[in-house]
Amino acid sequence: MAGGLLAVDLGLHTGLALYNEQGRLVSYRSQHFGNADSLKRRVRTLLDEHPDLGWLVLEGGGQLARIWEYEARRRRIAVRRISAETWRKQMFYPREQRGGQLAKRNADQLARKVIDWSDAAKPTSLRHDAAEAILVGLWGVMKVGWLKEPPPKMNVRKD
Questions:
Q1: Residue 159 domain-assigned?
Q2: What's the total number of domains in the chain?
Q3: Model-level pTM?
Q4: What are phi and psi for residue 14, nearest 5 degrees?
Q5: How far is CA 61 from CA 1, 67, 73, 82, 95, in A?
Q6: pLDDT < 70 stretches in the chain
Q7: What pLDDT shows up at residue 1?
Q8: Which residues make beta-bridge pairs with 8?
Q9: pLDDT of 67-108, one tens digit each?
Q10: Is residue 61, in this structure, part of any structural domain at all?
Q11: CATH no. for residue 62?
Q12: Is residue 150 part of a domain?
């Protein structure tokens, strides 16, 4: 597969994280879509921005996932759909996910470490959907073999 990996935390408030083939975070952001029709129109443009994209990893499902999957498959981009529990189980111990606020705080802290390790632009603020997209992408680059293990000093679960 050529190009990079785009991780998407699905929703009308969507988190996006782009990784290169070395497993480094290149860019990340949050995007708000007013409704599914708006998302459908914008997905084409978002994927046009990355013509060499090889992988799309989606966290979530339903109608919004189908919109992304359709457009990715049309472009011959490999798609992997996962649940939040899938990547969280690999990244965090159960004690680090008890309660929504604790899980979000830990996701934010780990995402900031990925940003630093990747030498990506530092955030002025980091929405939770972008932070989660960063971690979905980290999970993805390990699954496709671009990274054999988490970056050093990430304190990511290893068992």
A1: no
A2: 1
A3: 0.91
A4: -105, 140
A5: 24, 10, 16, 8, 26
A6: 1-2, 98-100, 153, 155-159
A7: 44
A8: 16, 58
A9: 999 999 999 999 999 998 888 888 887 777 766 677 788 888
A10: yes
A11: 3.30.420.10
A12: no
